[in-house]
Amino acid sequence: MKLRTGQLLNVTGMNRERFNGTNRDGNLPFYVSNDDRVSSWASFSPTDAFKLRLMIELMGGDHSDAQIKLLARFACRVVQNAIGYAETDDPTHFAKATQPIFLGAAEFSDTSAKGDISFRAAWFCGPISAFERWVDAQNAEGKLYGETVLNRMVLVNATEAAKHVLGKIAALGLTDEEPGK
Length: 181
Prior knowledge:
Elements: H1 5-12, H2 16-24, H3 46-58, H4 72-82, H5 91-95, E1 101-112, E2 117-127, H6 131-143, E3 146-157, H7 158-171
Antiparallel strand pairs: 1-2, 1-3
């Protein structure tokens, strides 16, 4: 199934102006060829829509009063990196999960025995019940070099993002057999 630009925007909830700016700045979480950058006839997959919806959620979602909002370039980076730790990037996998799956990033600082501080990002994909074990593993890795501190983290509910996109696609009546219009 392929979605045209208007359909992509419909199923993700992103307006065209924001999409065009994000695209122009190179901050979409999927590849867009130079020819497709400005074309209304560009084709996108449900996976592209899912990644864009994850990014939208990280940027505050549909709520202008959201308290946590990432800039597009950081939201894009989180989606691109964290999705690499998933079994698949197919939104159907996330939508059918028995426990909600979260994607996100955390920043750790590691202090060496000499007192030198280095920062590192780590990417998470899994149920929230696995997050504490993941943080413990990240801390153990950092302790090889000295003291480790979890400075900040951001997570997004990928299961809900997938359900949102797939529900909108179904509402449009699109199927694998029917090309985007």
